[in-house]
Amino acid sequence: MTHTVSHLPDARGHFGPFGGRFVPETLIPALDELEAEYARTCQDEAFQRELRETLREYVGRPTPLTRADRLSASLGGPSILLKREDLCHTGAHKINNALGQVLLARRMGKQRIVADNLHHPDRKTIVLSDAGWHSGVIGIVASRIIDEFYRPTVMINIQNGKGHGSARSIAGFNLYEGLCACSEHLISFGGHEMAAGLRIETARIPDFAIAFENYARNRMAEGLTESILHIEAQTPLRDFTERVMRELQLLEPFGQGNPRPVFAACGVKRIAPPRRVGAKSEHLQVAISDGTASVRCIGFDMGHLEKKVLEADTFDVAFEPQYNTYNGSTTLQLVLSDIRFE
Question: Which residue has the higher pLDDT, 123 or 68?
Answer without folding.
Answer: 123
